[in-house]
Amino acid sequence: MSFFKEELKNVKAFVFDVDGVLSKDTSPLNEKGDPVRTANVKDGLAIRIAISQGFPVAVITGGFVERVRLRHEHLGVEYYYENSWDKVECLEDFCRKTGTDAKNVLFMGDDLVDYHVMQKVGIPVCPQDAVSDIKSISKYISHKDGGEGCVRDVIEQTLRAQEKWLTDSTSIKNAF
């Protein structure tokens, strides 16, 4: 088993950025000129499964879009930080509220606003289309682009490494 897969056994919580991670990094603009975020349903199911298996999940975003917050609330994400430019402060709040040590947090980011917070966690990861500075500090680069299943990729790998991935229909029902 690779070193990265061994490290996944230590993950106790997940934290994700939105733009470029949970949604694509390009999007059409609405009539007001605001980006219309996308959402990947497989990422959503993986988040539900992680939560059902006892993992705290947080979203930390510099954006402020009601529909994005509502989606994550619907998925069961209890820790949602929006309009945030100090992601380290949000991570510290999340760790304090959940009792999780930052060394046991997997954080997925894709751009420079994620750089400092990714240096604070034990397992910094990124999507395939992240900027080079983020790739250089990531312990894993997903084979998926942001908004196209990269969150599912890291959650599934983590839960499989910990033998907590759900594959039977009864267990999957518990995620809802």
Describe what this molecule looks like in 3D.
The N and C termini lie far apart (32 Å). The protein contains eight helices and six strands, in the order H-E-H-E-H-E-H-E-H-E-H-E-H-H. Strands 3-2-1-4-5-6 form a six-stranded parallel β-sheet, with helices on both faces. It is α/β, with parallel strands linked by helices.
Describe this protein with a few key phrases.
176 residues, alpha/beta, 6-stranded parallel sheet, 8 helices, 38% helix, 12% strand
In short:
By secondary structure, this protein is an alpha/beta fold. The chain is built from eight helices and six strands. Helices cover 38% and strands 12% of the residues.
